[in-house]
Each structure stands twice: as structure tokens, then as C-alpha cells.
Design goal:
The protein has 270 residues and is mainly alpha-helical. The protein has 3 domains: 45 residues, no CATH class; 146 residues, Lysozyme (Orthogonal Bundle); 46 residues, no CATH class. The chain contains 12 helices and 5 strands. The chain has a 3-stranded antiparallel β-sheet with strand order 1-2-3. Strand 1 and strand 2 form a beta hairpin. The longest helix has 23 residues. It is globular and about 60 Å long. The two termini are 25 Å apart. Bound molecules: calcium ion. Calcium ion binds next to helix 10.
């Protein structure tokens, strides 16, 4: 919801109500007060406009995104050597001799959350610079991607890598297979292909290409998605995480019969 617009509407309604209850009285107002009031109103309007045209700058990794990174990193109570650096918890970089007593899972989650800004900011800077709009699943997938590669990957000197190129040129110009491949290209560490890293890239690509109605995440809305949501609604809840996000076709935060009807309308026409 655009709260800035709502606030302005509420303010105008309040002003209208006050005007009805208190008819204007002739009075003297110093010209400087008029100018200050005009400047104040202009600032309020400009702030509202800025809030509307820079939504990407306020994005944060969702709780689903944090859970995904945790699931991919795995938990380590003690410091360990992770390819190029010492890490602890859910892959948080630390010094070799930090946390000699180890950490709990809650402490590790806090360390992870506190470290996310350094991966989120380069993505947001890139998105802002090239006017790239990102959905929440797209942003989450890019944060997970960047978590393993470092924020420097979004620097201009790496402009030849495919995912970056696709984002700049518009994802609608590329196929689902091409976008998946753009993620899976980053499956090597030290020149060695790592199956675990490839699996993570594939999962990131599915999250990245999430859209409402495609419950099973295969890239299209069809009868299989309706069956998946039907089974979830009428049987044992089966859908979790981003599948639940995709199944929420109406976008009201719940998965129910209304989503099945919305998906039916998308498939067969309203
Ligand atoms: Ca589907």
C-alpha cells in the first residue's frame, strides 16, 4: 500500500472537515509565514514523491529469504575454514579465534541478519543505477547468490556476467532456461564444480522466477497448480516457503479457495 498517498488524503480530509466546522475568519498573516508554509507543503509533497519512485532502496531480505540462506549454509557452532575465510554459524565471516566457546543457533541467526546489509546494499545500488525493479523473491534470491560471491560481484567491472546483463536488459527478453543457466554458471569454487553449489544455484533460480499462481514453480500456471493448491487447502498442508507465496494467487497473504478460483480464471479466462 502506498502509505504516503494515504497520509496526504487523510490530511486533506481532515482539513476539509475542519473547514466545515470552522468557517474561515478574516485575519492577517505575515508574508513570511505564507512562504514557510508553502515550503513545508512542498517538502511534504517531494518526500511523498521520492518514496513512490525509489521503492527498491527500502527492500530487505524477507524472513523466507533468511530461512533459505540458513538452510543452504547449514549451522556450525564453532569457527570453520570455508574455502577462503573463517566462518561460523550460518556462514558468517569471522576471525579464526573469534567465539572460542562457540555460538547458539539464535546467536548465529542474529550474526547472519546483521551481516545482510553488506550483501543487500550492492544489489540495491545496482538496481537503482540501472532502474531494475525487483520482486521480493527476486531480491531474496539475489541476496543468497551474493552471500556466496560477495557484494563486489555487482561492481561495474563485472558487467559481462549473464545474470547482471539480463537484469539490465530486461528479464522479459530471456527464457526461463536462460535465466536458470545464468544462475547455474556460478557453481564453481577455485575452478572446481561443486554439486552442492549447483543445487543451491538451481534453487535460487526457481525462487528468483517465482510468480503468483505458479504454485509448483515450474514456470507456468496450469491444472497442476490448481491441484497443488486444492490438496494444500483440503488435505494436509503441503506447500511451504516460496511455494506458499506463489500459491497465494490473490496476494492477500492466505492460501485458500479464492486462490483456486483466481488460478482457474487465469487458465480458462474470467
Ligand atoms: Ca505451475
Amino acid at each position: 500500500m502506498d502509505y504516503s498517498s494515504a497520509m496526504i488524503i487523510i490530511h486533506f480530509d481532515t482539513f476539509s472537515q475542519l473547514a466545515l466546522e470552522n468557517p474561515p475568519r478574516p485575519c492577517y498573516t505575515h508574508p513570511m509565514k505564507n512562504r514557510l508554509f508553502s515550503a513545508f507543503i512542498l517538502c511534504v509533497l517531494l518526500c511523498g514523491l521520492c518514496a513512490q519512485i525509489t521503492p527498491a532502496l527500502s527492500m530487505e531480505t524477507s524472513s523466507l529469504g533468511i530461512d533459505f540462506i540458513k538452510s543452504q549454509e547449514g549451522f556450525s557452532e564453532f569457527v570453520y575454514w570455508d574455502y577462503k575465510q573463517w566462518s561460523i554459524g550460518y556462514g558468517t565471516t569471522v576471525g579464526e579465534f573469534d567465539y572460542p566457546e562457540g555460538i547458539t543457533e539464535n546467536e548465529a541467526t542474529l550474526l547472519l541478519i546483521n551481516s545482510l546489509a553488506k550483501y543487500e546494499t550492492p544489489i540495491l545500488d545496482f538496481a537503482d543505477k540501472y532502474n531494475v525493479a525487483l520482486s521480493q523473491p527476486q531480491f531474496d534470491a539475489l541476496v543468497s547468490f551474493t552471500y556466496t560471491l560477495g557484494g563486489g560481484i555487482w561492481a561495474d567491472k563485472y558487467e559481462d556476467f549473464m545474470l547482471r546483463q539480463y537484469l539490465r536488459e530486461g528479464l522479459e527478453n530471456f527464457t526461463r532456461a536462460e535465466i536458470t543457466q545464468a544462475f547455474e554458471n556460478w557453481r564453481y569454487a577455485g575452478g572446481v564444480e561443486l554439486p552442492g553449489l549447483l543445487a543451491r544455484r538451481t534453487r535460487e533460480a526457481v525462487i528468483f522466477q517465482s510468480f503468483k499462481g505458479d504454485a509448483n514453480g515450474d514456470g507456468q500456471i496450469d491444472i497442476d497448480d490448481i491441484i497443488a493448491v486444492r490438496d494444500h487447502v483440503f488435505g494436509t498442508p503441503l506447500l511451504t516457503n516460496y511455494a506458499l507465496w506463489r500459491a497465494d494467487c490473490t496476494g492477500d497473504g492466505r492460501v485458500n479457495v479464492e486462490d483456486i478460483l483466481a488460478m482457474r480464471d487465469l487458465i480458462f479466462g474470467a
